[in-house]
Amino acid sequence: MEKAIKVKNVSKKYKLYNRNKERVLDLITPKQYGEDFYALSNVNFEAEKGDIVGFVGINGSGKSTLSNILAGIVPETSGTVEINGQASLIAVSAGLNNQLTGRDNIELKLLMLGLNKDKIKELEPHIIEFSELDKFIDQPVKSYSSGMKSRLGFAISVNVDPDILIIDEALSVGDKAFAEKSLNKMKEFKEQGKTMIFVSHSLGQMKEFCEKILWLEFGKVKDFGTVEEVLPKYEEFLNKYKKMSKKEKTDYREAALTRR
Ligand SMILES: Nc1ncnc2c1ncn2[C@@H]1O[C@H](COP(=O)(O)OP(=O)(O)OP(=O)(O)O)[C@@H](O)[C@H]1O
């Protein structure tokens, strides 16, 4: 089977600063300021061409960080990422310029993908129609609601026909009808054998749509396997986790981090 994604020992380190002053000093002086924080730590995972992989994990487990690394939006600190084809990320705030209008954003994104003027002219009406933004398409994106931004992002990403589609929580904002239309588009891609990564807190959508599940916990891979293998375990964990007190959650996190 041909691999679409190969992630080897990927870590992502952020620096956490107590004050802005520390951030500036860290940049301009040789002395180190701030605290290292690993949003991802030695993550390994592979996806075959045509796989539909769901990323699950509690808040802050690293799902968006990994999605952004796969889409080439943020760089990994260490490790390697191999992407076979063109990846396109759909997330509420991904890659849209707030100062520009929706139409300008479409043109900019298509130009950045290397499309020529004729191809852009051909695609633009389809994207605008899919987005259902009508006259808002000529308003600056900063005036859009999160649902409208998501619709624009979704409409651009699905119409540029990417090899790998990464959808990060984009269906959780906006109205039900648009989410339905988007899910249908994703099903079309599934039938075409495209590789997809799907990040969602909705286990129902995961079950309906994904074949494999990558479970992240505090930046590490907790489990990776078929939906049937992994999702029931994650569901059981979630039920227990939700019932924990604040202190129990902190203890659980600390125990997990010490085990590393
Ligand atoms: N730019 C950044 N600087 C510092 N820390 C960051 C940055 N981006 C993310 N993080 C931290 O990295 C961790 C992982 O965040 P990420 O958004 O990837 O998690 P997630 O699983 O997508 O969470 P959610 O389900 O809440 O969207 C979090 O603790 C977050 O605070």
TrEMBL record:
<dbReference type="Pfam" id="PF00005">
    <property type="entry name" value="ABC_tran"/>
</dbReference>
<protein>
    <submittedName>
        <fullName>Teichoic acid transport system ATP-binding protein</fullName>
    </submittedName>
</protein>
<comment type="similarity">
    <text>Belongs to the ABC transporter superfamily.</text>
</comment>
<keyword id="KW-0813">Transport</keyword>
<dbReference type="InterPro" id="IPR027417">
    <property type="entry name" value="P-loop_NTPase"/>
</dbReference>
<dbReference type="InterPro" id="IPR050683">
    <property type="entry name" value="Bact_Polysacc_Export_ATP-bd"/>
</dbReference>
<dbReference type="InterPro" id="IPR003439">
    <property type="entry name" value="ABC_transporter-like_ATP-bd"/>
</dbReference>
<dbReference type="InterPro" id="IPR003593">
    <property type="entry name" value="AAA+_ATPase"/>
</dbReference>
<dbReference type="GO" id="GO:0005524">
    <property type="term" value="F:ATP binding"/>
</dbReference>
<dbReference type="GO" id="GO:0016020">
    <property type="term" value="C:membrane"/>
</dbReference>
<keyword id="KW-0067">ATP-binding</keyword>
<dbReference type="InterPro" id="IPR015860">
    <property type="entry name" value="ABC_transpr_TagH-like"/>
</dbReference>
<dbReference type="GO" id="GO:0016887">
    <property type="term" value="F:ATP hydrolysis activity"/>
</dbReference>
<keyword id="KW-0472">Membrane</keyword>
<keyword id="KW-1003">Cell membrane</keyword>
<feature type="domain" description="ABC transporter">
    <location>
        <begin position="5"/>
        <end position="243"/>
    </location>
</feature>
<keyword id="KW-0547">Nucleotide-binding</keyword>
<keyword id="KW-1278">Translocase</keyword>
<dbReference type="InterPro" id="IPR017871">
    <property type="entry name" value="ABC_transporter-like_CS"/>
</dbReference>
<dbReference type="GO" id="GO:0140359">
    <property type="term" value="F:ABC-type transporter activity"/>
</dbReference>
